[in-house]
Predict the structure.
Amino acid sequence: MNRKGFTLVEVIVILAVLSILAAMAVPMALRIFERTAEDTTREEMDNIKKALLGNPQKLQTSFRNDFGYLGDIGCLPSTALGGLDRLLTQGSLPVWTFDSTKQAGAGWKGPYITGTPGEDFKKDQLGNDYTYTPVAGTCPLTATLVSNGPDGLPSTADDITVTIVANDTTATIRGTVKNTSGTGLAGVPVEYYSAANNGVLTTTSGTTDANGNYSFSSAPFGQRAVRAVPFLVFEPGSVTTNGGRTDISFQVRNYSTSAYVITQVQAVFTGGANYDQIQINNNTVDNGSNFISGQTVNLDAGDIAAGDTTIAAGTVATSSMRVVVDSPNTLVPDITLSGGTLGTIELNSFNQNMQNRTITVTLNPGPSSSVVTFVVP
């Protein structure tokens, strides 16, 4: 039998061809691996971002209900508290609790991230640690997350960066307090309840403007609550005067469920005027002389009959309203106040015609004060 093998030249040619193919295939395979690792790393980084901020696609009754770590804690993980570790473990953060009166909650209720057992979610698919950099401070609201990319070197062209900016985390929320007629109510205290300061349920206070509008800035995204907490509120359109515009009457409405006793009255106005008498519900509660702008008048309890300075309680308690803060400018539903009790206050015997002047009246100056501002018609 005639058996013929490869010649030495043929073997050399075959080896050369195989070497060339191998030289071409290895870089190609390496690049395929790198691209796969990059794509998987981007997916992992997106998962970390969703753990931090929540998934905007998760809805309940048409409202977003997933705000991740930010929604529960009110800020991003700080370096001092362990950075990204807090997505998996509670550390020193408070446990999540819900205040049924405020209708808001705060605290850690993770874990916020899941993954394959045994894998470190803080490493990219090339085995390098992610660099997580929150803005300095105890309660950061912006941050960057960086993978060094295929070359494993920081600050090079192949780095993969996810940036979390203020528009991703915080809002200015706006709302209106109105009466049952739809008129905005001025000077109404409003409280905003939110997770902040690393998981602490925090109350921020504000007051409505002349049109009944209020706003709170730098509000972390999440499920929050607002509540109007009025004492006495100016009744729109209630100002009347005598013919000479020297006796001025206006009404306030008590929307709280507690009676409000007026012990001090302070009126601020322009023009160097003064007045001599204060009446509440047609009862003279102070007959003095030359009460000037900015003077706090202490109503003389010894000269007042019981109940003369009291505005009776309203019949409907105000309650907290849960709201979803999910965009940089969030408009929340109106707060409508009802069930209030009217009271009438008079500032009489001005020594000048007060027409077209602005008067600001503060009842009980201090923590429980009610402020009324109007223009004399």
